[in-house]
Design brief:
Layout lengths: L1 H13 L12 H28 L4 E2 L5 E6 L11 E10 L4 E4 L6 E4 L7 H7 L7 E6 L20 E11 L4
Length: about 170
Protein backbone atom coordinates (compact mmCIF):
# COMPACT_ATOMS: atom_id res chain seq x y z
CA UNK A 1 0.00 0.00 0.00
CA UNK A 2 2.77 2.40 0.93
CA UNK A 3 4.53 1.61 -2.34
CA UNK A 4 1.46 2.62 -4.32
CA UNK A 5 1.46 5.99 -2.60
CA UNK A 6 5.13 6.72 -3.31
CA UNK A 7 5.43 5.22 -6.82
CA UNK A 8 3.87 8.22 -8.64
CA UNK A 9 6.08 10.56 -6.63
CA UNK A 10 9.22 8.67 -7.68
CA UNK A 11 8.23 8.74 -11.35
CA UNK A 12 7.59 12.48 -11.28
CA UNK A 13 10.75 13.23 -9.27
CA UNK A 14 13.05 11.29 -11.59
CA UNK A 15 11.82 13.02 -14.77
CA UNK A 16 12.90 10.02 -16.86
CA UNK A 17 16.58 10.56 -16.05
CA UNK A 18 16.74 13.97 -17.70
CA UNK A 19 18.98 16.59 -16.16
CA UNK A 20 17.19 19.90 -15.74
CA UNK A 21 18.77 22.73 -17.72
CA UNK A 22 20.97 25.17 -15.84
CA UNK A 23 19.15 28.37 -15.02
CA UNK A 24 20.09 31.24 -17.31
CA UNK A 25 22.05 34.06 -15.72
CA UNK A 26 19.83 37.12 -15.76
CA UNK A 27 21.03 40.13 -17.76
CA UNK A 28 21.18 42.23 -14.57
CA UNK A 29 23.60 39.80 -12.95
CA UNK A 30 25.83 39.87 -16.05
CA UNK A 31 25.97 43.67 -15.93
CA UNK A 32 26.87 43.57 -12.22
CA UNK A 33 29.68 41.12 -12.94
CA UNK A 34 30.98 43.35 -15.74
CA UNK A 35 30.85 46.44 -13.51
CA UNK A 36 32.73 44.62 -10.75
CA UNK A 37 35.45 43.61 -13.23
CA UNK A 38 35.77 47.25 -14.35
CA UNK A 39 35.99 48.34 -10.70
CA UNK A 40 38.80 45.84 -10.02
CA UNK A 41 40.71 47.08 -13.08
CA UNK A 42 40.35 50.72 -11.94
CA UNK A 43 41.43 49.81 -8.42
CA UNK A 44 44.49 47.97 -9.75
CA UNK A 45 45.44 51.02 -11.86
CA UNK A 46 45.04 53.29 -8.81
CA UNK A 47 47.31 51.01 -6.79
CA UNK A 48 49.89 50.91 -9.59
CA UNK A 49 49.89 54.74 -9.74
CA UNK A 50 50.33 54.92 -5.96
CA UNK A 51 53.23 52.45 -6.13
CA UNK A 52 54.84 54.47 -8.96
CA UNK A 53 54.67 57.65 -6.85
CA UNK A 54 56.55 55.85 -4.05
CA UNK A 55 59.54 55.51 -6.43
CA UNK A 56 60.54 52.13 -5.00
CA UNK A 57 59.91 48.60 -6.23
CA UNK A 58 57.03 46.58 -4.81
CA UNK A 59 56.41 42.87 -5.27
CA UNK A 60 52.94 42.00 -6.62
CA UNK A 61 51.33 38.69 -5.71
CA UNK A 62 48.85 36.77 -7.83
CA UNK A 63 46.02 38.06 -5.63
CA UNK A 64 46.89 41.71 -6.23
CA UNK A 65 48.58 42.37 -2.87
CA UNK A 66 51.73 44.50 -3.24
CA UNK A 67 54.46 44.58 -0.63
CA UNK A 68 57.89 46.03 -0.07
CA UNK A 69 60.29 45.03 2.67
CA UNK A 70 61.62 48.02 4.59
CA UNK A 71 63.70 45.96 7.00
CA UNK A 72 64.50 42.34 6.15
CA UNK A 73 65.89 40.37 9.08
CA UNK A 74 67.13 36.82 8.44
CA UNK A 75 64.83 34.20 9.90
CA UNK A 76 62.00 31.79 9.32
CA UNK A 77 58.87 33.35 7.79
CA UNK A 78 55.56 33.22 9.63
CA UNK A 79 53.59 30.01 9.27
CA UNK A 80 49.89 29.24 9.68
CA UNK A 81 48.74 28.95 13.30
CA UNK A 82 51.65 30.98 14.67
CA UNK A 83 50.78 33.99 16.78
CA UNK A 84 52.08 37.16 15.11
CA UNK A 85 52.65 40.24 17.28
CA UNK A 86 52.68 43.37 15.13
CA UNK A 87 52.87 47.15 15.23
CA UNK A 88 51.13 48.88 12.35
CA UNK A 89 49.79 52.03 10.78
CA UNK A 90 46.80 51.46 8.49
CA UNK A 91 46.07 54.18 5.92
CA UNK A 92 44.08 54.61 2.74
CA UNK A 93 45.77 55.33 -0.61
CA UNK A 94 45.08 59.05 -0.08
CA UNK A 95 47.09 58.98 3.16
CA UNK A 96 44.17 59.18 5.60
CA UNK A 97 44.98 57.24 8.78
CA UNK A 98 42.39 54.64 9.77
CA UNK A 99 44.01 52.65 12.57
CA UNK A 100 47.35 52.24 14.33
CA UNK A 101 48.85 50.49 17.29
CA UNK A 102 49.85 52.90 20.05
CA UNK A 103 53.56 52.94 20.97
CA UNK A 104 54.39 49.96 23.19
CA UNK A 105 51.03 48.28 22.57
CA UNK A 106 51.39 45.82 19.67
CA UNK A 107 48.45 43.68 18.58
CA UNK A 108 48.48 39.93 17.96
CA UNK A 109 46.65 37.62 15.59
CA UNK A 110 46.86 33.94 14.68
CA UNK A 111 48.18 33.54 11.12
CA UNK A 112 45.56 32.09 8.74
CA UNK A 113 42.99 31.84 11.54
CA UNK A 114 42.04 35.19 13.06
CA UNK A 115 39.71 37.67 11.45
CA UNK A 116 42.11 40.19 9.98
CA UNK A 117 42.36 41.06 6.30
CA UNK A 118 43.17 38.01 4.16
CA UNK A 119 45.79 40.13 2.38
CA UNK A 120 47.50 40.72 5.73
CA UNK A 121 47.67 36.97 6.41
CA UNK A 122 49.25 36.58 2.96
CA UNK A 123 51.83 39.34 3.50
CA UNK A 124 52.84 38.30 7.02
CA UNK A 125 53.73 34.84 5.72
CA UNK A 126 56.51 36.52 3.70
CA UNK A 127 57.95 38.12 6.84
CA UNK A 128 60.07 36.90 9.73
CA UNK A 129 60.28 38.31 13.25
CA UNK A 130 61.95 41.73 13.15
CA UNK A 131 60.89 42.51 9.57
CA UNK A 132 59.07 45.68 8.56
CA UNK A 133 57.13 46.13 5.34
CA UNK A 134 54.71 48.31 3.44
CA UNK A 135 51.76 46.22 2.29
CA UNK A 136 49.12 47.47 -0.15
CA UNK A 137 45.95 45.38 0.01
CA UNK A 138 43.21 45.76 -2.61
CA UNK A 139 39.66 45.98 -1.31
CA UNK A 140 38.73 42.38 -2.20
CA UNK A 141 41.56 41.14 0.07
CA UNK A 142 40.93 43.80 2.75
CA UNK A 143 37.48 44.94 3.91
CA UNK A 144 35.56 44.25 0.70
CA UNK A 145 32.49 45.91 -0.68
CA UNK A 146 31.16 47.35 2.60
CA UNK A 147 34.42 48.49 4.19
CA UNK A 148 34.68 47.94 7.93
CA UNK A 149 31.58 50.05 8.68
CA UNK A 150 33.75 52.39 10.76
CA UNK A 151 36.91 54.03 9.41
CA UNK A 152 37.59 52.10 6.19
CA UNK A 153 35.13 53.21 3.48
CA UNK A 154 33.49 50.78 1.08
CA UNK A 155 35.72 49.25 -1.62
CA UNK A 156 38.87 50.84 -0.20
CA UNK A 157 42.44 49.79 -0.81
CA UNK A 158 44.39 49.84 2.45
CA UNK A 159 48.10 50.39 3.08
CA UNK A 160 49.78 48.75 6.06
CA UNK A 161 53.08 50.00 7.41
CA UNK A 162 53.73 46.94 9.52
CA UNK A 163 56.45 45.64 11.78
CA UNK A 164 56.41 41.98 12.75
CA UNK A 165 57.70 42.11 16.29
CA UNK A 166 57.47 38.46 17.31
CA UNK A 167 56.24 35.04 16.18
CA UNK A 168 55.11 32.44 18.69
CA UNK A 169 54.37 28.82 17.77
CA UNK A 170 51.15 27.31 19.09
CA UNK A 171 51.32 25.16 22.19
CA UNK A 172 50.71 21.47 21.68
Amino acid sequence: MKFLLFAPLLVVACENGRVPPAPAVPQRQESLIDENKRWLERESRDIDLWVTRQQVAFTKTGTGVRWRMVRDVPGEPARPEQLARVNYLLTLLNGDTCYFTPPGAPESFRVEHDEVESGLHEAVQSMSAGDSAIVVIPSHRAHGLAGDLSKVPMRSTVVYHIGLEKLTSPRK
